[in-house]
Design brief:
Order of helices and strands: HHHHEEEEEEEEEEHHEEHHH
Radius of gyration: 28 Å
Number of helices: 9
CATH topology of the largest domain: Immunoglobulin-like
Strand content: 15-25%
Number of domains: 2
Distance between the termini: 67 Å
C-alpha cells in the first residue's frame, strides 16, 4: 500500500514540476516571450484559444463534480431517480448558443490576424526615386543550411540573418531541394519554404539581439526534411537601422573578394585550392532567386568570422571548424559537403584561422 502511495506522490510531483517548467524559456528561442509585433499577435491568439478551452474544461468539470456530489448513491439511495429533462428547449438552446458564441469569439480575431499578418501588399513599394521603401529578404532553404539574399541591396549571406529593428521586414520563402519551414520562435512565423512556389510574409523585430544571452535570436526549420532536420538552425542578428546600414556597407565593400592562390597565408591558398568552387568570400551577388548565383553551391562565407555557430549548431571555434572539415557526415548526416580527411593538422589549423578571419564586423 505504501509503495503505491509513494508512486502517486512521485507522479504528482512530476506533474507539478512540468507545469512550472512549462513557463520557463530562453528569450532568444521561446514563443512565450514574444519579441515583435507578429509574435505578440500570435501569442495573444494563443492566450485567447487557451482561455476558451480552459473555460470549457472548467464548466464541464464543475458540472461533473456537482452531479457526483448531489446525486451520489450513498446520499439519495439506490432507487432515487433524478428529474428527467429530455426535450427541454431551454437546455437545447443553451448548449447550442454557447458553443456558437465561443467559436465566433475565436474565429473573428483569428480571421482578422490571418489577413493582417498575410498582407504583403507593401513589399514592392518604391519611393519617388524608385528606391525600395521596405527591406525584402529572399530566404532559400537547402539541405541543411539557409541562404539570405537582399535583392535591393545586392548582397547575400548565409546561416545568419541580419535585420534592422522596429520596421517591417518582408520575406520571400523558397526551397532548393525539399520542403522546409522558416521559423523564428521568439519573433513569429512559421511559414513553409516550398520548391514549387514562393511564400511571402513579414516580421517586425523589436528587440536588439546583442542584449540576449548568445547575442542572437534562434531560427529553426519546422518541417521534417531529412536526417539532419534537427540541426538545420540559423541565427538572427537584430540592430538599430544605423548599425544595419553600416553592416550593409561593409558587405558591399567585399565586392570582388576572392581567395588568392599566391597568398602568403597558407590557409587562404588551401581554401582557394579546395573550397572556393563552392563557397564565396564576397557578399555581393545574387542567390537562387536572382539572375546569377553568388558564386557558390555552399554557404556564403564572407562573414564567417562574425557567426555564432559552425555548421549552424557547433561551437564557433577553430577546433569545431577542423572537426567539421574532417568528417561532415558525422556531424550533419545527409548534408552535401564532402569530408576532407587528407589534410594535416597544420593545414587544418591554417584553414580554420583563415575562416575565422573572414569578418565584416570587426
Amino acid at each position: 500500500m505504501m509503495k503505491g502511495l509513494k508512486k502517486w506522490h512521485f507522479f504528482s510531483l512530476l506533474a507539478a514540476l512540468t507545469v512550472f517548467l512549462s513557463g520557463c524559456g530562453q528569450k532568444e528561442l521561446s514563443t512565450l516571450l514574444p519579441a515583435g509585433e507578429v509574435a505578440r499577435d500570435q501569442f495573444n491568439l494563443l492566450l485567447l484559444s487557451s482561455g476558451i478551452m480552459l473555460f470549457v474544461i472548467l464548466v464541464v468539470v464543475i458540472i461533473y463534480v456537482i452531479a457526483l456530489a448531489r446525486f451520489r448513491r450513498s446520499k439519495l439511495g439506490e432507487d432515487y431517480m433524478p428529474k428527467q429533462v429530455e426535450g427541454s428547449h431551454t437546455l437545447e438552446l443553451v448548449w447550442t448558443v454557447i458553443p456558437i458564441l465561443l467559436v465566433l469569439l475565436l474565429a473573428v480575431p483569428t480571421v482578422y490576424y490571418t489577413y493582417k499578418l498575410g498582407n504583403v501588399s507593401a513589399m514592392g513599394a518604391v519611393d519617388d526615386d524608385g528606391n525600395a521603401e521596405n527591406l525584402v529578404v529572399d530566404v532559400t532553404a537547402k539541405l541543411y543550411w539557409w541562404e539570405f539574399e537582399y535583392p535591393d541591396l545586392g548582397i547575400v549571406t548565409a546561416q545568419e540573418l541580419v535585420v534592422p529593428m522596429d520596421e517591417k521586414v518582408y520575406f520571400n520563402l523558397a526551397a532548393a531541394d525539399v520542403k522546409h519551414s522558416f521559423w523564428i520562435p521568439a519573433v513569429g512565423g512559421k511559414l513553409d519554404n516550398n520548391v514549387e512556389n514562393v511564400n511571402k510574409f513579414y516580421l517586425i523585430f523589436e528587440e536588439d539581439s546583442k542584449d540576449l544571452k548568445d547575442g542572437v535570436f534562434y531560427g529553426k526549420c519546422a518541417e521534417l526534411c531529412g536526417p539532419s532536420h534537427a540541426l538545420m538552425d540559423f541565427k538572427v542578428k537584430t540592430m538599430p537601422r544605423a548599425e544595419f546600414d553600416n553592416w550593409v556597407a561593409a558587405m558591399q565593400a567585399t565586392e570582388g573578394n576572392t581567395a588568392d592562390p599566391a597568398s602568403a597565408d597558407q590557409g587562404e591558398v588551401l581554401f582557394e585550392q579546395s573550397c572556393i568552387g563552392c563557397h564565396a568570400v564576397s557578399g555581393v551577388g545574387q542567390g537562387p532567386m536572382g539572375v546569377n548565383e553568388a558564386g557558390a553551391m555552399g554557404p556564403n562565407l564572407t562573414a564567417f568570422g562574425d557567426r555564432n555557430r559552425v555548421a549552424g549548431f557547433m561551437d564557433h571555434t577553430e577546433e569545431s571548424i577542423k572537426e567539421w572539415i574532417v568528417d561532415t557526415q558525422k556531424h550533419k548526416p545527409g548534408n552535401l559537403m564532402p569530408s576532407f580527411d587528407h589534410y594535416t593538422d597544420d593545414e587544418l589549423d591554417a584553414i580554420a584561422t583563415y575562416l575565422m578571419g573572414l569578418t565584416v564586423e570587426k
